[in-house]
Specification:
Radius of gyration: 33 Å
Distance between the termini: 31 Å
Oligomer: single chain
Bound molecules: zinc ion
Largest sheet: 5 strands, mixed
Structural class: alpha+beta
């Protein structure tokens, strides 16, 4: 139950104690209803309309700092106001606040399921990517073209490995990145990959490469090296290479299935329909500047077309078309 002074006779002078069915005590004083609270001694009961004004002041007024719904409702009650829908009204106000929506954090959850691609045999499928820019090296090199066989690894992972290797090597070796590159590639080729449990080198040539440590501290194969025997074993390894690759292929398929299952559990399905108002991610569109104080989102725009693959065509509110198509992962619904 709630009421304000307007619906009661003024100046009755008497206090009236009201007990609600849930046991919370209220007090009617001079025609104004107060509710007993755990936070404050007494909260003035107001209508949702007056409450809405209080919430707007607390959220975006002179003393407002666009807090979330729970804190907003708490601030309302600390200011000694109460009405039964104070929390839901706070949530609604925050959800519809334009400023809060434009500065809303970027969601990182994927919006589409991962479908693992399998490559039937080595070097059947290639991924090529550009890595850089790096500090300009002698002869003007400042980018790397990374070409990687899809069977052994995904391009993004290779990029990450190369970049990490370069950063750490440059830190300790204090030389240029271009000088360190052959070493990094050797490290990559002679390190077993998690997905296949094999090194890219052995899957290509059938035999593990002899690394410098095996020469420094002779390993058994270096110690007991015999030319004749070695030739024969190398040829046998080439014959057995198909079996090794098949084994690696099965491991890779299992690994990719595990990764996809983990990834897909985090997918947040987002879809928009014609006429929806949406905001687009500012870091992608760069429509609203990229400074620290610039909003994360820009808009609203109207959805003009939406396809099943998750791409939308957008238009400004005046009907002008926004260039390019926009993927759902770079959009959020504007309320
Ligand atoms: Zn806000």
């Amino acid at each position: 139950m709630y009421m304000d002074g307007a619906s009661s006779k003024e100046g009755c002078g008497a206090g009236l104690l009201l007990i609600s069915p849930t046991g919370r005590a209220g007090l009617c004083l001079k025609g104004v209803l107060y509710r007993k609270s755990y936070l404050q001694q007494r909260l003035k009961c107001v209508t949702p309309e007056k409450g809405s004004y209080v919430l707007r002041e607390l959220h975006e007024g002179v003393c407002g700092n666009h807090v979330g719904p729970r804190v907003l409702a708490k601030k309302g009650m600390l200011s000694r106001y109460y009405w039964p829908t104070i929390f839901w009204d706070s949530a609604e106000l925050v959800a519809r606040c334009k400023s809060c929506q434009l500065h809303a954090p970027i969601h990182h959850a994927p919006t589409q399921e991962m479908i693992p691609l399998h490559s039937p045999w080595p070097f059947f499928q290639w991924g090529i990517d550009l890595l850089g820019p790096f500090p300009r090296a002698p002869r003007g090199y400042d980018h790397l073209v990374v070409a990687i066989d899809y069977f052994t690894k995904w391009v993004e992972n290779v990029n990450r490995t190369i970049l990490h290797g370069l950063k750490t090597r440059i830190e300790s070796a204090r030389t240029g990145w271009l000088d360190e590159l052959p070493t990094i590639l050797w490290v990559y080729r002679t390190t077993p990959r998690t997905a296949t449990q094999k090194t890219p080198f052995v899957l290509t040539y059938g035999t593990e490469a002899v690394i410098p440590a095996e020469i420094g501290v002779p390993s058994s194969r270096v110690q007991y090296f015999a030319v004749q025997n070695n030739e024969e074993e190398m040829r046998l390894n080439l014959d057995l290479l198909e079996c090794r690759r098949e084994e690696a292929c099965i491991r890779m398929a299992k690994y990719k299935r595990q990764v996809a299952r983990y990834y897909n559990a985090r997918v947040r399905h987002l879809s928009f329909k014609l006429g929806d108002l949406v905001l687009r991610r500012n870091s992608v569109s760069r429509a609203g500047g990229t400074g620290k104080l610039n909003p994360n989102w820009k808009g609203p725009y109207v959805v003009k077309e939406a396809d099943r693959a998750g791409y939308c065509k957008l238009a400004h509110l005046n009907g002008d078309e926004v260039p390019r198509t926009w993927h759902n992962s770079n959009l959020r619904l504007f309320r």
